[in-house]
Amino acid sequence: MKRFNTPLRAVTLLAVAIVACGALYAQANDMVVAKASEFVTLLQKGDFQAAYQKVDSNLGFKSNPDTFKKYWQALESKAGKFVEVKRSSIESKDGYFVVTQVAKFEKGHVDLKVALDNMMRVSGFQYANHKEDAAGSNPQASSQQAPAATPAS
Prior knowledge:
Layout: H1 6-44, H2 48-52, H3 57-62, H4 65-79, E1 82-93, E2 96-105, E3 108-116, E4 122-129
Antiparallel strand pairs: 1-2, 2-3, 3-4
């Protein structure tokens, strides 16, 4: 009996490689979202010192734990208390991973953007009014963006 013929073997190996790469990509995305979520959770819990420990050296020179405290308090004064993260998306921009989390606050939804460098250190954090979905199902909080504590790259 003949083993796999060469073209079939090549197709099989290619399919296995594609599945493996897809799994690695998904795992990497999960790790990026987890790091961004960890940072947002620390802010939400008021542990600004621990949040500060997650930033890269460039952001560290531009900010301090009090900067994050003021920034988060400004957000909550406009949008209400943080409730939960509804969903996250990732994009790559200028060598950074930018995680956009649609967060539910008491008064509506806000887009939280956390930029991470290749070492998974926070290099930027911003928030903005949530852009409504096509269905218009998510109300937006009136959270006019405060001056950015840091650029989100």
